[in-house]
Amino acid sequence: MLHETDLSRADLNLLVLFETVMEQRHVGRSASRLSLSPSAVSHGLGRLRGLLGDPLFLRTPRGVVPTDRALELAAPIADILARVRGVMASVEPFDPARSRRRFVIGAPDGASSVFLPPLLEALRRRAPGIDISMRQLLPRQGEPSPALAWNDVIAELEARAMHVAVLPVGEMPERFLRRTLYEEDFVIAVRAGHPFADNSGIEAYCAMRHLVVSQAGDTAGFVDTALAGHGLSRRIALTVPNFMFALAVLSETDLVAALPRRFVAMHAHRFGVIAVEAPVELPRFLISAVVPKVAMMDAGIAWLVGQLEQVGQAA
Question: Which CATH architecture group holds 102-178+289-314?
């Protein structure tokens, strides 16, 4: 990345600065995150531009946007910093009972609603000083391939926008570590007393008005693929942006929705919603914790992945 003759002018803090600006996309917010003045951040970016021979970040009315060269450098710089952090962490061994770290976990809300309650309980008992920030992750809009639907999230994970992602994936590129937390399938969720509970055949199911969870408002999904295999279709009467909202709507309407089984088992009773077995075979999904392998050099991240495995397997 740097010519050998430039290394004497390099400063590791400049790479931390690059990483922060790449994440925040804003000089002022980056300055606040780094406890620096905006002018100090601007000065540091000027030094980086001279070292790397590229503008790196271009100003816009809303902040800054990275150049193509900056996007190319994001992953190598993240790897360098992860290795350095791993070395530094090894100097003072990670102690969860004493740590005051904050970890960022990304997940779709149907998964986070399952693993987060037991994870918080585990942290309360074993690591009371550790805090968690959750990010809601969404698949790429309009992408029919499960293998490609989470590519945007994978890029954010490599850019260190989060420490761990929990995703419905069974395979990942070689540079990632994937640990299965649990296997998920889907049930049909309806309010208690719904007529579908007593007549749950496939024809009755198709005749119902359906609710689909979709942040972008997409209506087609794996349920429609399964029904098409039988020459059938359904009417999507409503889309909502998350699973908890879906439960609230189902509790007060005659809509039906295919929702994750574990999510329904943990939360539906509070809304007066019950689960009915699906009248058509639906796919099963592995819910996995995903992290760049290089990040596992950080003992804290490795510990967190282990905790996720434990609570996922116990769920």
Answer: 3-Layer(aba) Sandwich (3.40)
